[in-house]
Amino acid sequence: DIDGADNAVEYRTHVQNIGWQGWVNEGEMTGTSGRALRLEAIEIRLKGDMAAKYDIYYRVHAQNIGWMDWANNGHSAGTAGYSYRLEAIQIVLVQKGGAAPGPTAVPFKDANGPVPATPMPESPSSDVPIRYQTHVQNVGWQGWKTNGEAAGTSGKSLRLEGMYIDIDGADNAVEYRTHVQNIGWQGWVNEGEMTGTSGRSLRLEAIEIRLKYGSKATWQPTMISITVFMRKALVGWIGRRTGSLPEPRGFRIGWRPFRSLSCKKALRHRGRQQGRL
Fold it and tell me: Does residue 149 register a pLDDT over 90?
């Protein structure tokens, strides 16, 4: 209920063994009583003048997950298909177009539905013009993206299959490789070369990217970094891995960072591991 407003909000819930119920108006009950059926998700939206003046944000505490991200204006918050109960809820009104009260990446998870579309996290600004291009299932090669723009798709359940990376105005400044379905880690390639596959319907599962020494003499090494966002099905954007020069670094999503070795040192290291040295 919204005090001082008449018929300003409506809402509905996703109920165990029932699914989504119909919309009800403020002051009316949603869910069930006396049937021992859990609430699993909720949608709330404003109406009339209130909808023109305010956005309504809400988030839920779900069993086995904890506090999820914020949903707004009729979008789903909670889960479906996981048998997780709602345990708490927060609701906030903000001025129309105002900032969300917190993260909004993954407010809802549906075990039987498509990956929910989520906004890309805010990226740090960059004076270095890096660009990248991805090959997407059922789409093919997309156009080039630059400096924090999202490459690929969101909410369509389409896999990435290949990728190019390039830094404008720098010669041989970055190298990268990908972990590919049924193949594993491919070899390192230099900027402007393709990693992954094309036409084989194999998904990219992880990526490593690292800068190289002597890439551009005018750059301040301590000011150069790479930030990688990866998106996992039903999870959303899973964060960033960042490294800075002067020490070259690579990035493994889900593993510890590694340090590159010279070719000779790498051979010695491998030989010791295999008991040959």
Answer: no
Q: Which residues touch 48 (CB under 8 Å, ≥6 apart)?
A: 7, 8
pLDDT above 90 (res 92): yes
Helix or strand (DSSP H, E) at 173: none
**Type and span of the H or E element at 130:** strand 130-136
The number of helix segments (H) and strand segments (E) in the chain equals 2, 21
Q: Please work out, in degrees rounded to the nearest 5, the angle formed at the alpha carbon of residue 243 by the alpha carbons of 271 and 214.
A: 75
Q: CA distances (Å), 277 to each of 14, 143, 250, 259, 262, in order?
A: 63, 48, 27, 21, 17
Both tokens of 250, joined, read 């690579």
Report the share of the chain in percent with pLDDT over 70.
68
Q: Specify the pTM.
A: 0.46
Residue 214's alpha-carbon distances to 125, 211, 248, in angstroms, are: 23, 9, 11
